[in-house]
Design brief:
Blueprint lengths: L2 E6 L3 H12 L4 E7 L2 H11 L3 E5 L7 H11 L4 E6 L4 H9 L4 E4 L3 H13 L4 E2 L25 H11 L4 H8 L3 H15 L4 H10 L7
Parallel strand pairs: 1-2, 1-3, 3-4, 4-5, 5-6
Length: 213
């Protein structure tokens, strides 16, 4: 049986490149591809992949949020996080959320096939370039940095705020009232010690929630 893989990355060229690499592997089948976290969740439910290769930084819903929801709804699916970020905070956040592996984009061409095989077999995978970092498959939840103080809903609101959505748009996306959205936004800004939207955007970029520009 081939390993069925779902690719989730907001850059079409990246998805196409990964698909080309994986098509050359005799034991791997690309079942589908998604351009953001929400689409990845929908396709995972439809396609039942064995492994999801998930970019950590995507619009609409970032990879960490999608990973948490995916693990809740489909615990049998292994998730390999794909990222340009090599900081220990990003690595720890990914594993805290339930990632089975962490692969740097710069290493994907050389390592993605072996990484998928490893996580499918139940072995945690870490990019070789991260060998100098402490290897912990399940870091403590208190190592999650400043984002650890936010609830899942507050992180969702943060993501959508920094993408430029209005309170009414966020309310519609999350099935909340605009007043509730404003409350969540005020609460998360207080927790993070941030006073304005510009500060929120800078924070989000620094912590991999949204790409700069």
């Amino acid at each position: 049986m081939n390993i069925r893989v779902l690719l989730a990355d907001d850059h079409a060229m990246m998805r196409d490149g990964l698909q080309a690499l994986l098509q050359a592997a005799p034991d791997i089948e690309v079942a589908g591809s998604a351009g953001n976290g929400r689409e990845a969740l929908r396709l995972a439910a439809e396609l039942h992949p064995d492994v999801v290769v998930m970019d950590i930084t995507m619009p609409d819903m970032n990879g960490i949020e999608a990973l948490g929801l995916l693990r809740e709804k489909h615990p049998q699916i292994r998730v390999l996080m794909l990222s340009m970020h090599s900081s220990s905070e990003h690595v720890h956040r990914a594993f805290n959320a339930g990632a089975a592996g962490y692969l740097l984009k710069e290493s994907a061409g050389e390592e993605i096939v072996s990484a998928i095989r490893a996580v499918h077999a139940g072995r945690p995978y870490m990019s070789r370039a991260l060998a100098t970092l402490e290897r912990r498959a399940a870091p403590r939840s208190d190592d999650g940095g400043p984002l650890a103080s936010l609830s899942s809903r507050e992180r969702q609101v943060l993501q959508l705020v920094v993408e430029g959505h209005s309170s009414s748009e966020i309310a519609a996306l999350l099935h909340l009232s605009p007043k509730s959205v404003d409350t969540y936004r005020s609460r998360l800004m207080k927790k993070l010690g941030i006073d304005d939207i510009t500060g929120l955007v800078k924070f989000a970029i620094q912590h991999g929630l949204t790409p700069p520009g």
